[in-house]
Amino acid sequence: MHDISFKGFAGVALKGDVSGNENDPSVLLVHGVGQSRDDWNDVADALRKAGRRVLRVDLRGHGESEWPEDGRYDFDACVEDLRCVLAQMASRPVVVASSLAGWIATAVIGEDGAHLASGLVLVDAPPESETGSSERSDAAIRAVTEAALSSGRFDPRFQETFYSGDLVQRVQSAAGTIRLPVLFVRGALSRISPADEAGRFAGRFADAEYAEVREAGHAVATDSADLFNATLLDFLERRVPRSVPEYRSGSDARTLRDAMGCFATGVTVVTAKDADGEPVGLTANSFTSVSLDPPLLLVCIANTSKSRAALEVAETFAVNVLHIGQQPTSNLFAKPGEDRFSQTPWETGQHDVPLLSGALANFECRQHAIHEGGDHIILIGEVMRAKFDPRRDPLLYFNGKYRRLHFA
Length: 408
Fold this sequence. Notes:
Blueprint: E1 2-7, E2 13-19, E3 26-30, H1 41-49, E4 53-57, H2 75-87, E5 94-98, H3 100-110, E6 119-123, H4 133-149, H5 158-161, H6 168-177, E7 182-187, H7 195-202, E8 208-213, H8 220-223, H9 225-239, H10 253-260, E9 265-266, E10 268-273, E11 279-284, E12 287-292, E13 295-302, H11 308-313, E14 316-321, H12 327-334, E15 346-348, E16 354-356, E17 361-373, E18 376-388, E19 396-398, E20 401-403
Helix pairs in contact: 1-9, 2-3, 3-6
């Protein structure tokens, strides 16, 4: 085990540690209010022995993490802290978050952060599905923080600024957007999250499991460590297994497609005019530069595409690279039967090809060669004109989903 440090929101230093093989799948443990990463000792040991790489981090104002000078412990600051931590990790972990940290993790992952994690485990996170549960949550925060103040490793200003009552709708809305595997673990004796409320809250997630640990209260991970660890490891092995999918020649084509999807690409729309002078086009992410001298590029067009015939005979065509604001355009040109150009601003380029207006880049090409490529044709073009907008960022595609650049 060795210590690590993350840069949190507004530069706050967040301290943590990491243990286990760096090639094993990662689990990030996030403690609750008034606790520290040391509260995960038993869980971390079990995960490490089960072949998981374990990272733990202290929340701002807790443990060894920095106490911010401005005293900001509001929910937004905590959410941005965790978002920063996840963005600085080398792989997408399963996030295991206890108590109020479960709300923080739900907001991070549900609010445009699904690409930062591979799963979510909520350890007795307050459900906030009934009137009065916010009062229970705030009372629990006060009780825990008062007990923690004597340790000297907790900033007393936290309890003065963190209020849960106005977060209900935000957390519930975020839960409804999460499509990752989720586990909600509740201590059967917990007074913070009644069983009926906890079950309803878990039901807000699209792919959630619910488990109760007998003879455990709110601090379920420590009250009944063996049963909690068994529940957690069972979920991980079933839903986020250590073994990686493997494709062998002749086996499942879906696995091969998923493996190919590990190569992140940009997104383009390939356009041309058919024999009648009408514009045709389709979305394609199999695009690459081939040569600078002569200036060549290639795109792969599916044999089943309705635009294939026009692209095969067209003397000129264009490749339009999309920016992050053009995801709707990508979806439009990926759907068969849509009247694509009537819904998309475009213009005719200098070489009589349709160019999508405002694209990140436009390449006007003369057909150079066509090759058969299994269930696609490989269309090679010689670039005659190119223009681009350096002020925009690209729309990316990775693992079957749209992505965007992240600047850590």
